[in-house]
Amino acid sequence: MKITKLEAKKPPFFDIDIRTVADIDKDPRFYMVDTQETPCYWTDGKRIYYRYSAIEKANLDTFVYFNGFFAKDDKHCYIVGRTLKGANAKTFEMLNECYATDYQSVWTSGGRFEPADISTFEVCDEGVHRTDRDRETSWEFSDGIRRVVRVEIPYGYAKDSKQVYYEDYHGKIKLLAKANPATFVSMNDGDFGKDDRSVYYGKSSLPKANPATWGKISHFYTKDDKRIYYLNKLIKEADYDTFEVVVLTSPEGYKLPYGKDKNQYYNYGNPLSEAEALYEVNRPL
């Protein structure tokens, strides 16, 4: 998989007095149509801001940002507007949407960590959490117009010659203690990976899963040549030959995925009758 490093970009300019902003995420003046985003880093031409707060140490002339988390100028590196202690601004860059490095240490949204072998450290995917949901993220802005807003959550795997690492936007970096970095590959969805011995959901292995025959079905359901799984849970009750994922529609129009075989339905991997499934789908919110 070819992975492109993130481009360092100048912050967008908005001629806006921050004192007039009630909610930056709903203020249409901040909506960037070309990227379908509202900014985290931006400038009014006088100062650099991270959302509502000015970054006092930032150099307006040299400041660049990578994504909604990481940025730098000629002297400092930043995470959500705060200075990263010990980071070398000259060599600092982002390997994907999730992992940043100055080639001495590595950072994610969860903070700094030291890989076992920094000289061989590499990312395994694009560093973004991807799901099977079929609706776009959107919300209503203060002018009454609903707009699509691109939201990318940093999840992903990385590895070096000695370890495999996982970032899931919850706390510090996770280690896959038994994973084989020589054969480990990510499914590029922020959730699943495998090596020559095991399949992983996040840092947890799928019990008895055969990596040679394992594959995704949809909506976190997967299978190998003998078994059905939801996340890292083996669904012992599933009938393998007839198992499928169906999407049911609620009265409000929400698309709700369920597992299904000839005997029953499954919600988050838990068995339930057809009547129970239909009741869940159709009950009022």
Q: Looking across the biggest beta sheet, what order are the strands in?
A: 4-5-6-7
Straight-line N-to-C gap: 42 Å
Q: Output the number of helix runs.
A: 1
Mean of residue pLDDT? Answer: 96
Structural class: mainly beta
Q: Considering DSSP H and I runs of 4 or more, what fraction of the residues is helical?
A: under 10%
Number of extended strands: 29
> In percent terms, what proportion of residues is strand?
25-35%
Main beta sheet: 4 strands, antiparallel
Multimeric state of these chains? single chain
Question: How many domains in all?
Answer: 2
What ranges have pLDDT less than 50 throughout 5 or more consecutive residues?
none
Radius of gyration, Cα only, in angstroms?
22 Å
Per-chain topology:
Blueprint: E1 41-43, E2 48-50, E3 53-54, E4 64-65, E5 70-72, E6 77-79, E7 82-83, E8 93-94, E9 100-101, E10 106-108, E11 111-113, E12 122-123, E13 138-140, E14 146-148, E15 156-159, E16 164-167, E17 174-175, E18 185-186, E19 192-194, E20 199-201, E21 204-205, E22 215-218, E23 221-223, E24 228-230, E25 233-234, E26 244-249, E27 255-260, E28 265-267, E29 270-272, H1 274-282
Antiparallel strand pairs: 1-2, 2-3, 4-5, 5-6, 6-7, 8-9, 9-10, 10-11, 12-15, 13-14, 15-16, 16-17, 18-19, 19-20, 20-21, 22-23, 23-24, 24-25, 26-27, 27-28, 28-29
